[in-house]
Amino acid sequence: MRVRLTINGEARQLEVDPRQSLLDVLRETLDLTGTKKGCNQGACGACTILLDGKRVLSCLTLAVMHEGARVTTIEGLAKGEELHPLQAAFIEHDGFQCGYCTPGQIMSGVGCIAEGHACSAQEIRHRRSDRRRGGKERTMIPSGLAAKSRR
Length: 151
Ligand code: FES
Known about the structure:
Elements: E1 2-7, E2 10-15, H1 22-29, E3 48-51, E4 54-57, E5 70-72, H2 85-92, H3 102-114, H4 121-127, H5 137-150
Parallel strand pairs: 1-5
Antiparallel strand pairs: 1-2, 3-4, 3-5
Helix pairs in contact: 2-5, 3-5
This protein binds FE2/S2 (inorganic) cluster (FES).
């Protein structure tokens, strides 16, 4: 099936298998491997992207369901050499651990801030989509608050 998506600002027309998740289209068809496949069942948040500006677990949705949608992945956050404030805050606060989940955490944080839900440490803790990495709180919360203050 054919689907039209705007991915990181670029209009794309894609032939996809109707059973393909948006995550698999991003990673396998478009080679945008910044979005990670962790659990592939909606539990870890590693695959978080923005779909029309809202946080979505891309492993849980089919690409064909989103005709005309705007998709933002971790590759689309920076403006040239200028990192998104949350990317910069992750570097500043050493927020990476092994790094595999970092793109999903950053995309979740960007969506959370855009939705106006990153006003306090407690709110960030409650709203993050990456629930498997307890140790991330040490860096995710200061990073989120720092990024919000830079907006
Ligand atoms: S890979 Fe999508 S939530 Fe884990």
